[in-house]
Amino acid sequence: MAYRLFEGKKHAALYLKYRVSPSDHLIQQVLGFLEKQKGRPFELAVDVGCGSGQGTLLLAKHFASVVGTDVSPAQLELALQHAQQANITYRECVAEELPFADSSVDLVTAMTAFHWFDRPRFLQEAHRVLKPRGCLALLSYTMDIELSYRDCCAHTLNQVSQEFYAALKPYRNPHLGPSSIDLYRAAYESIPYPDKEWSVCG
């Protein structure tokens, strides 16, 4: 079964404020792969486990229509408040039961969310809704990321980050296992598509 977290209104507000969003560079990598597979135009993208919609917004300028889905009404309420683009809509649903027809979606994304899903069921569902040559993008970050910020000492910044994550590690949900990168690597290796890419962005 999928894990239901981040659902309360207070938690959703904190999620909107502090959640790490994918970089534009990473989104461009995903779009480049999609264009290579099926070409343009890009019609429909579905951002699964969209939370408060940060990733959904990043896709909007590239697709005719973008739908963010999440299990949490509180997250979707915040997402709706920040969706200025007319081509964005949101749907409340679980990741393993997407309200889309077979072979109807160009791109399915899960941005820092896939690890909470019933992973085999979600992968089957994503495969069902994707068009031929459509793409699935599973994006996340790990606790050993290297940080940098202008006019800031990278060594000190990364030392603070390592101490922070070391303090949190005892509270890590057992569902995630010891390493996020191992979890995503296992999912990548389990996907039988002939064309796939593994990318680590700095």
UniProtKB/TrEMBL annotation:
A GO BP entry: methylation
Signal peptide boundaries: none
Annotated keywords: Methyltransferase, Transferase
Domain spans labelled Methyltransferase type: 46-137
A Pfam family of this chain: Methyltransf_11
GO molecular function, one term: S-adenosylmethionine-dependent methyltransferase activity
InterPro entries associated with the record: Diverse_substrate_MTase, Methyltransf_11, SAM-dependent_MTases_sf
Keyword Cell inner membrane: no
Coiled-coil ranges from the UniProt annotation: none
Protein name listed in UniProt: Putative methyltransferase DDB G0268948 isoform 3
Source organism of the structure: Scophthalmus maximus (Turbot)
Upper taxonomic lineage: Eukaryota, Metazoa, Chordata, Craniata, Vertebrata
